[in-house]
Fold each of these.
Amino acid sequence: MKKNLFCILVAALMLWGLPAHAGGTWPEKSIQVIVPWAPGGGSDLSARIVMDKVANILGQPVVITNISGAAGLNGALRVNRAAPDGYTVLWEHPANLAIAPVIGRAKYTWKDFEMACSIGTSDIAVFVKKDAKWNSMKEVIDDIKAHPGQIKWSLAVNSASHFTFLAISESMGGLKIMQIPGAGDKTRIINVMGGVCDITTAGYAAVAPYVESGDVKILAMASPQRSVLAPQYPTLMEQGINAESVFLYSAEFPKGTPQAIIAKFQAAVEKALQDPEVIELLKKQGIVAQYKDSAATTAVWEKESALYLRLAKANRMIR
């Protein structure tokens, strides 16, 4: 009798410790999606576009909260410490949580979250001022090698723009440039237009308006294949440079979030990405909508992490 009573008490305590939504009623209140960057960028806009439709599908509000600072780590830490109850989500891309742990800027990695899915990719463009003398990456590389330390390349240290350059440099046997600080796409675009630097990289969506206005010209895309949105531009690979980089917008939950909740969230996101309006809105932001489940998304993050680790080691960046 005592043994049976003990078992009943243990079972009751276990059930009491489970969140109410574990029974399948999630979500019962609003969901907070944390974007670890300032409003207006690709991460922020993609989250708002997709989550607006997801909110309709799930029948609960989805609140987008921007928590920037520390190169995206402030927002990521907030989610990392949140309760694993399905009401806090991180909207992220590999350039943050795949780089920071490698160079010692974070004690946690993307593996300390539950990877849910990804919603699409945004191409990265390599570009120069419209009247620049170069019309191909080969011409730029040849000039950098002929004049080491003189060509000005704008980048944000320890970011995607930095590691994209490192990959290009490695492929070309090492490139010595004059490094110009440029935190954020808009800053680097202004740097090019104002003559502060000669060349840089930024998300295609951010660069496109300045191509149309005649201020800059794109020499290459860093994507593995030609861009669906701008197929007229050759890739780095096509120009003999073994380097690639894209933004993969992904959703992650705190570690320990029930898989039943994640599965329901995944289904809602996948359904949202089938909506023509969502697809078109993402396209206008330079994002190609493509749903990937947790396994497929994890595979991309694994690949990116391995690349960042190799480049960090080669350039003695690991603390």
Amino acid sequence: MSAQAAPFAPELNPVYREGVTVGVLAGDALRFAADFLDSIDAGAAARKKLADDARVCRAMAEAVARAPLRNSSQVLAPTDLGGRFFTLTERMWPNAEVASYLLGHAAELMQALPAVNGALKNRLLLDAQQLRRVRMLLNIAPNARLGARLTELLPLLRALERPIEGEKPFPPMLIDSVTADPVFHAAAQDAYRIVLGRELDDLPGMASAVWSGKLALAWLQTHDRGWPLTAIEIARLVEAVRSPSKPWNRAPGVPGDWTDLEPEAAAEVLSLIGAHHRVGSARAPFPLAGFCDRVRTLPLRCHGGIMLIETQGRISGGAIGIASFVLTEDKVLAVDGTSIWIHDLNDAVGPHLQDEGARLDYIRLFMNCVRHEGERFQPVESFEDLADRATDAHALRDLCVGHARVIEPAGFDAEGRWLFLLVVCHHQGFFATGLALTPDGLIEMIDDRMLTDDVPVRSERMDGLFVVLEPKETTS
């Protein structure tokens, strides 16, 4: 089987479908999946199965749009999908569960099928990503309507583990502080309605207690306020950001339209960081232990506007350092030089790489923030990118004239990955580099060729979460 052509997907981004139900969105996705199955080039036996699956997709599209939680036996024949959802027991397979299987199956085919060229394969990968996102919504929120309330409840719904048969309720004293909260009560009612289409208050006592316990645990996971700062600690942060000790000593680590926060907002951000990131045996809030007194922010287009934070502070010995964090709805991720944080970010909010500008921003974010031996693979698009690291500005400018280049999209490889050509600075070397990027945000360096190894720039190192410039005399 292979893909010689493929249909174009309808609008499946929930952001642009506000007001419709998840069932309607899933129905549109299933009709698209059916068109895709019909487009696959295959032999006679495989073609018959694909046609049967496409027929079931179209039938299930109507059913899941009307009633996601209704019994699928009203739509499926015993032989459909190889009898996978036929049972002689009392088990009910909801339309949403069958639809989820079909969307997952179509996404797997899109991912696995060879395509006639890299551009088509890339489109299939993007389409598979869209189907998986719709499937995720269908799995956790089958009875929901797209909009602000669903967005607000998504962290809770993702964390929720449904009870298993015979499960006993949690001891009340462990969750009373949560279940007594009226905000939680309203969220629990809405979440149960979204998941099962019924009212939580209508459940018998034991079942209600079990579900309330599960919802309370999920609530605690997603509303972890960390270790909140004391009033005295907050006052110290407020004083620090009102009277910063020094101007910013470096340009931002990632190019973009950064905003310096006013003192009140800066103190709030540092308080949030401090509640989730503490250091030393005394577990001091990171911003206080690191003498942080400046904050700037950059919305990440490649992650739907999630904020990248930089804060300037001092390490022992007085050297200035800059630490970075990413704020999501329910996480404060430290940009610690590894790639773990960006994979966690991709899992939490997904990379948004549909347009070229977002892809270029993602490349800049990844290459500037994921480090090897303390050093980044800094894209060199102009002299200004390296100016604050220069040990000899005139010599560096001359080198940049000969080697710097804007990151250049270079089409696709056979696997459907986007290709990019760029020059990076690592340690004191310039390298001509080729990168491959998947729609899921995985980057592979597929080519690197040294251009010069005597770039006059200072080295960087990580000191805890701070990025610090080495003194000129220690740079080799």
Amino acid sequence: MMDRQQILDWIAEGLERWPEAAERHRMVAACGPRVLARYEGFEWKALLLPARKVSTLARLDAGSVAARPCFLCAANRPQQQAAMPWRGYEILVNPFPVFPNHLTIAATDHTPQRIPGRIADMAALAGELEGFTVIYNGARSGASAPDHFHFQAVPSGYIDMLRFDRGPVYSRRFIGRDADTVVRDVEQYLLSAGLSDDGAEMPVNIAMERLDDGNLLVRVVPRRAHRPSCYPTPAVSPGAIDIFGTIVTVSDDDFMALDRDCLERILAEVAYPNPDRCIRVGIMSSRNPEFTLNGRYERVADTFFPLDDDASFTLEDVPVGSQFHWEHTERRTYPGTLELQRRSDGTVEAVNVIGMERYLEGVIGAEMSPESPDELLKAHAVISRSWAYKQIACREALHYPAQCDCGLKEAGDEHIRWYDHDDHTDFDVCADDHCQRYLGLPAEEYSVKLHEIIRATSGEVVLDGDGSLCDTRFSKCCGGAFEEFEYCWEPVHHSCLEAARDTVPSHPVPDLRDEEEAVRWIMSAPEAFCASPDADVLRSVLNRSDFDTTPDFYRWTVTYTPDELSDIVRERSGIDFGMITGLQPIERGKSGRIVRLRITGTLRTMTVGKELEIRRWLSRSHLYSSAFVVERGDEGEFILHGAGWGHGVGLCQIGAAVMASEGYDYRTILRHYFNNADIRACLIINVAGRVV
């Protein structure tokens, strides 16, 4: 690997021997960009670079290209242009730079500009050129030398790889620490794009960068057109640098004429639109997902772009409630873009790329009954938006971690595991209860109401005391007391997620970490908003399937024979305990939920945690919660007396429904469940999850 300073020193030495190129590099360093548009922290800029007219105004028809000498062939290059050999390429200082220290990496052989078979070279180059972003212009998407294969490279930072999703241009992203895997996935995507009728590759721009944490991040932008219809007025001919955030102009008139509207018209013609502040939702994975396109779509490789606002696609056999007691499949219809992501194991992931506010309509329609009180739906819209933005911000801050162990800790006879949402590497969130349920288009009779609910809270998020996004968790029923984050997931305290009673005013919470206090609490029915909703309120907050399958939720009882319990634990854990003889809570959280449970059997004894793993091991689907007390029956049966439904952290959906029915507004509801919450409309969310 060449470190950044070595590369910069080599460039400086080359420019000392080439005064004309050195002057152009000095000029671009002094050139001030003009910001045309800001998209939640991502800036699209314009530069005035008259020297670039040789590229911007170049005639690229086959006759014109054939008639001129190839300026990338060694025989035709200026003698002053130094070359550094590298794996069948030569690294060159670009004599007409867009940014300081702009490089061109040209193939030693005169061969056409086609990317198939060269993605591995691009990845190796990104790893070799520390502190640089490597870019590729397709022959019909910005390359001024379509007859001679080449890459370009610019110092990292000029292309905002992490926040590009926030702009108006669609890109397909690939990420991972293992370059071979990333290369394979990119090649598969490009292969699925195929060739056009004239044998040329589909037009694409590609940017690739090895991030500081070792991840290789790739963005592929499929192109609709080489140049916009307005060309040459203004004379904007978008290549990769333009497509990735910096529009190059060559005249004062064009530089001053560009504004946000003009920019977005140009980008809409030459690339595909990115839904407004989009989110990528993983819907399902199967060998051959069956889908139907409803309305007009345009296909590029395995991505289907809607051409009309009301276009949608329908997927068959979408899993709902995977590994929960309500697990089933449905036929569901989704708005927006459909991506089919092919995996090395032969499966295909169907991903919905959708604008955030449209996504929220599908979440609220799935998580709540549309007949719920308006203030409850507004509260849920705010926390669902906050949570989704938090996931995106965390992934950006972590540079999209390539691997996740989901919090698995095993030592001796302890198995402690928690399940969170950062194990998705190819999309932001999934559509099932693992993240937050999203079922696409809501029922037609409720779509107008849900649209109005989302619009009434447009952009609003929950912030904690330091102005950062609150990790707004929610569950069906807290059981009377809220749990704290660290007892269910990573052992990190969140100030907005404090234990408290589900009452107003809040009464003191007993120390439910104490076993005697937990038994008293769970075996009684303390006053709480979620304790006694009437049937109409319950029906309004639960979907039909949840209402029909859940007659009790605040306090419940499950009974197992020893044989039955032993079989269930063996099936669910994969561990043979023999005949189970005892279940003993070792640690509880502040809501009384068991964090560590000792399971004793005739063959082995083991401690399991955290709450979701306990619920999974002790049921063929899931226990309602881990807040339970174990009683042995007269014939040795295990009787579990439990409280609540779900993890109990953050908003309690049943309790919030009762609050709304009693006249509390959504802001009051949110402040009740999220300690010291500040509800504010967000304009920009940076990669640290802070609203600025």
